[in-house]
Every structure is written in C-alpha cells, then in structure tokens.
Amino acid sequence: MNNTSMSGHLHKRLLYKSLLPTKNPPGRNRLKKALLLCLAPLVMASCATRIRIPAELEPERLLPAGAVAYLRINPVMADELIFPYIEPYGITLAADMLERTESVVLAVMPPFGIPGGQASKPVVYGVVSGKFPTRSIALKLNTDRHWAKEGHSWINKEDGFRLALTSRGQILVGTAPLDAITSGGYDKPHPVPEFWSTAWNNDLAMYLPDPFSFLDNKLPVDASGLPLEAMLISTRRMDDQYVLFLGFEFAMERSAVVFTPLCRLFVYALARSLWPQQASEILSPVTWSTQGSTVEASGLRLDALQLAGLLALPFGETLQARIGQMGGLK
C-alpha cells in the first residue's frame, strides 16, 4: 500500500471512529453540549462583528480627513515613545500585543468643544495593523463587564475608548465614536502626498496638513509670513537616539527657494521653544537642501524625551506638560 492509500485509510478510520458513540458518561456529554450552546453565540458574534475591509487597502485610507496631524509608528522601533500618548486615554498595551503590532497610523482631529467655552482633548483615531487573534479578542470583549457593544465596535464604560476589529485582522481604535472610520467609505485618498512616501515609512513620522493651526501660538516668533502648505517630521532610530528629517512643502518651487531662510528661522524658534538649553547643540549638525517645491532639513539627533516633546504638540497642553515633567521615558 502506498503512502497516499495509507493516509486515506487512516483518515477513514478516524472519521468512522468520530461517528461512534463515546465512552464518556452521559452527564459529561450533556455538560459539553451545554458549554457549546453557551459559547456558540459568542463565537458567532466574534465573527459577525469584524468590519469587512477591502484587500490590500492601505490603513492610512481608513483615517478620516481633516486631521490636525497624521502619525505613523513602527512600535518595535519606537516603543518608548508610544506610552506617553496612550496613557491619558487609559490604554495599556500588553507586551505580547506590542510585539504583534507591525504598524500604527493615527489621525489627531481638532478637539470637540464642551459647555463653558473650554475645549476637550483632541480626538484620536487609529488603525493598528499586525497579527492579532481577533476572534479571541472579540470573545474577551463580549464577556468583559468593562466593555459594551456599540454597533460594530466596543466601548470602554470607564473612559469611552472605542475598539473595533476588521476582516484583515486590524484593530480600529478611537477616543470618539468610530463612525468617522467605519462609515466614510474606502475611496478616501492617502492623507500624505506620494513624494513624502519614503520619509512617511520611516520608524516614526508625523504629517501636518496645516502646521500653524497648532504651532502658531507656541513659537517665540511670528511665523505667519511663512506660506507653508504642509510639513512632515520623520525619524529613524539609531541606537539610543532618533535621527530627524523635516520637510517643508510649498505651492511652487520658487517659494521653496525664497522662503528657505524662514524655514531655518522656524526650526531655530521651535528648538529654542522646546529645548532651550540644548537648542544650539541640537541644531549644529543640521544640513539644508531644496528639492522642487520642498525645503528639507536633516541631521537632527534627539533622545526619546526630546522627541516626545516635539511629537506632543498636536495633542494639547496636558500631554506637553506631562512630557515636560518627565525625567525620562521607560
């Protein structure tokens, strides 16, 4: 008998054996059936609640338009920078979940107003891509008293944090209802221009469609004369430091040439504002160049705490103050 025949014969024997009555006592069989009946709705729910996402859709295209800032993070290379951002929202990432994560893309939306004329925290939406056991996560959420179903997502009863699962194994997250992601269609353009694609896919990147919407009141100089279309900050990790790239986007090539001195002044003012004691040392190795309608600065080297202070700007004063009080990042 050849190997194929033997394999087929063994399969038939196993199938036949599975159809025979078991030797387990009737009480145990009834217990098994009862457990299956109890678990079946939860398993079906875990499958049904996954949001169907088109194959090969870039996660950035799920993010809503109109963000103050878009961020992309490689958690393996930037893990020490993640926790200051997520801690205020009551989110704790287990080590095994962090290891499963391949990339995180975030959209930081303008804050919602609240009665009394004060502004709340900025609204943050995100798409977490990786190898996640989505069925197990759904089962856990369905049985955890701290979470409740909200349409196709779950909401944490304590802090209002939302979470949803996709058919591609991604996790959608948000500090507000996820309708901005789940009901906006999948034909949205990529929020970051293609000519920034190399810088965007670094270990960590932040794209600012309107830089002065949140930087204007945080600089010691008036930068309103700098007609910036957008700005990108990108970094890659080298040992215990982060090497930065800054890109300034203008409408025309001529504007990039004319306003290069103002870009230099902008970076100087930003450095003096964020790191007054180390500004000169940080800026000394910077090199400048012009590429078409963009002005580019490279060579800045920051430690994790310095970079966290820079990236905290679009998240509001609360996180900036928290970063400023920290003596180091774990």
Describe this structure in words.
With 330 residues, the chain is of the alpha+beta class. 37% of the residues lie in helices and 23% in strands. It has a twelve-stranded antiparallel sheet. It is elongated.
Count of alpha/pi helices: 13
Shape: elongated
Strand content: 15-25%
DSSP helix fraction: 25-40%
Total beta strands:
12
SSE string, helices as H and strands as E = HHEHHEEHEEEEHHEHEEHHHEEHH
- First-residue to last-residue Cα separation: 63 Å
Structural class: alpha+beta
**Gyration radius, in Å:** 25 Å
Low-pLDDT parts are: 2-22, 31-48, 89-93, 113-118, 325-330
The protein's oligomeric status is single chain
**Could you tell me the mean pLDDT?**
75
Q: Strand order, main sheet: write it out.
A: 4-5-6-7-3-2-1-8-9-10-12-11
State the major sheet. 12 strands, antiparallel
